[in-house]
Amino acid sequence: MPEVEAEYLEALAAGPAAEMPAGVVAGRVAELLPPGPDLAGWLALAPVADMEDGALAGVAAGFRRLASWAAAGELAAVAELVSRSARADADAHVDGDGRPDRVTADAAGQIALALALSADGAQAWADLAITLAWRLPQTREALATGRIDLPRARTIARVTDRLGEAAARQVEQAVLGRAGQQSLGQLHAALRRAVVKADPAGAERRREDAEQNARVALYPEDEGTATLAGYALPGVHAAAAMSRITALAKAMKAAGAAGRIDQVRARVFLGLLLGTLPYIPPAPGAPAGPPPGEDPGGAEDDPGGAGPGGPARGGGDGGDRFTGPTGPWPDVPTSRKPAPPWPLGGVWPAPGGGLLDMTVPWATLAGASAAPGRLTRLGTITPSQAMGLAGLAARDPTSRWRVIVTTAGGRAIAVAAIPRPAARTGHGPPGARHGPAVASGQGPPRSSGPVGRVTVTISASALRHPLGTDRAQDPVLAALLDRARTAAGRAVARAAAGRAVAGAAGQAVTGRAGECAHPMASRSYRPPPRIRELVAARDGTCRFATCRQPASRCDLDHTIPWHRGGPTCACNLGGECRRHHQLKQHPRWRLAQTAQGTFYWTTPVGRTYIVRPDPHIL
Fold it and tell me: Is 372 exposed, middle or buried (0-12, 13-18, 19+ CB in 10 A)?
């Protein structure tokens, strides 16, 4: 830069120049350079350990500016890919500036595979690329020159998404001047003010529209914990709910509950939802309040649910007492019972399986292994969590159990249902299959627990070993595991016999060994349950590389179409979610299954991605 060069010439004219360590020079120069190849070169010239103290903060900022420049380049490439894909799509439109009217399935698929993104992640990344390329050009320029980073560019794009283009650019211009010096929270607040100022009537309308998208979601976190969150809730209602949770938590703290207030709030939150939050007594020395079950004054007098010194009412039985630090979390009920009165005309819903599916190794339940389990909507769970849920499911007559037999590498080779013992008299719901007593609304049937299906995995080699000391301590669970081994052994024998017969017949016709002889093939288009269960167990998830949709919820697709001679056999079937099933049918994409469960996806530009079966944990 001219200033640096002038200082150098001045120092040179003053006399012999002193030597300076490369790290000192690199750190000082890097602060002055714009993002690009020159900045990258200076930052790479010397390790940060050799830089002077005063240069480190500037070097960190230099790396951040360089990352912003790189992100802008990646997004520009994605925007061009989306534009070219739209030009080749008869259903898409591209204007004179190259701006596509939508992200095609072809473009989203290519981005997902190239950048290892989920379908939603690829769609969101493409949307951001289009937004910065054509809708918010000043934000794109600020990102490319390092004045803002990627999180700030995303925030600006997200908050202005519902605005018209002219209003969005008005907001963009209002906030960009200070965006690089503001925290994300400060920038978000500035954006909200600018959005309301640019379109006050629209802000109220958008708030009402957004509330129509309210939802509750569960996300797995590290260490086996999870986040249960409500989104797009009415703000006032959410604040009131938080106030009530806080009031109950403070009442629990006053009654002797241990732990931080945030942890106690979490206990109240779960207890209220599960209906297991017990009665909370008044604080020691406080005036006695009304007994459990009586209204202490109603919401108007006690909006938080816990008056000063009075007892707080939870969601559990009125006779239960809060036990303080001995019970840190509310119990998970064995069954979920809808709280009366049921709103649908007094008719109770028929009980059905729980919403969660759990997969766990046989050895873990038998106490012979510490391998983890897996729970839908949550992911990996610890052996202790798996044992607890399995114990609940073992006592729930509505839960379904199955066993998957695998190779030593965890690849599914057979599936079988685990028979359950008949329910004892009076244990199940009244009437046969929810008969007249339920249909007439006379009372609620027994409802199911949280786990609708338990899948036990066991390797074929483990079936040949004697039970020995591997046995669950829970007798009900132990009996189910015995049935699992028996069912697994029969399934393996049936599969082996079928392969032998089909293999001999196939070789007699073709003369070739090693090819699939279609031992389980069906002549119909729709796969029967025996094939569907095996393919879903083998695949685990959708066969698109970055998709996590469970295969049991996917379309079972013929890799070679059935009407073109593709057999309804495991060697020609794969689980694909509806989005990726449609992508497979795109005329510019190709999908091949070279070996049973091994898929080759080829994009329109000739890039190939291999997807192999998901191994089961053993």
Answer: buried
Q: What is the pLDDT of residue 310?
A: 43
Is the per-residue pLDDT at 77 higher than 70? yes
How many Cβ atoms sit within 10 Å of the Cβ of residue 467? 12
pLDDT tens-place string over residues 425-444? 344 433 333 333 333 344 44
Q: How far apart are the first and last CA of the chain?
A: 62
Which residues, in sequence order, are CB contacts of 159 under 8 Å at separation 6+? 171, 188, 191, 192, 195
Give the H/E segment covering residue 72. Answer: helix 53-87
DSSP code at position 522:
B
Within 10 angstroms of residue 581's Cβ, the number of other Cβ atoms is 19
Amino acid at 316: G
Task: Choose among 335, 570, 362: nearest CA to 461.
Answer: 362
Which range is least confidently modeled, 40-44, 101-105, 123-127, 346-350? 346-350
d(CA 154, CA 145): 16
Task: Report DSSP letters for 450-478, one per residue.
Answer: SEEEEEEEEEHHHHTS--TT---SSHHHH
> CA triplet 584, 80, 141: central angle to 5 degrees?
140
The two three-digit tokens of residue 434, written as one number = 């929810």
Q: Which H/E stretch holds residue 417?
A: strand 412-417
pLDDT band at residue 517 using 50, 70 and 90 as cut-offs: confident
Angle in degrees, CA 446, 450, 455, rounded to 5: 115
Q: Name the packing angle between helices 150-159 and 53-87 (round to 10°).
A: 50
Report the amino acid identity of residue 385: Q
Q: Inter-axis angle of helices 2-14 and 22-32, to 10 degrees?
A: 140
List for the chain the helix, strand, coil content (%; round to 5): 45, 15, 40
Give alpha helix (H) positions in 116-225: 119-130, 137-144, 150-159, 165-179, 184-198, 200-211
Distance CA 63, CA 44 (A): 10
- CB-based contact 330:311 (threshold 8 Å): no
Amino acid residing at 211? E
Stretch (H or E) spanning 86: helix 53-87
Which two three-digit tokens encode residue 192?
A: 């909200």
- What are the backbone angles phi and psi of residue 464, rounded to the nearest 5°? -85, -10
Q: Report the distance separating Cα 94 and Cα 112, nearest Å.
A: 22
Q: Count the neighbouring beta carbons within 10 Å of the beta carbon of residue 133.
A: 22
d(CA 441, CA 348): 6
Q: 413: Cβ–Cβ under 8 A, 6 or more apart, which residues?
A: 405, 406, 407, 460, 492, 495
Q: Which pTM value belongs to this model?
A: 0.75
pLDDT-wise least confident of 170-174, 257-261, 516-520:
516-520
Closest listed residue to residue 516, CA positions, set 582, 569, 467: 569
Residues 169, 138 contacting (CB under 8 angstroms) = yes
536-565 core/surface letters (b: 16 or more CB in 10 A; e: else): bbbbbbbbbbbbebebbebebbbbeeeeee
The answer to whether the CB of 609 falls within 8 A of the CB of 601 is yes
Give the Cα separation of 589 and 112 in Å (integer). Answer: 14
What are the tokens at 100? Answer: 């596509």
Contact between residue 73 and residue 85 where contact means Cβ atoms under 8 Å apart: no
Q: Which residue, chain included where needed, has tokens 């094939």?
A: 531
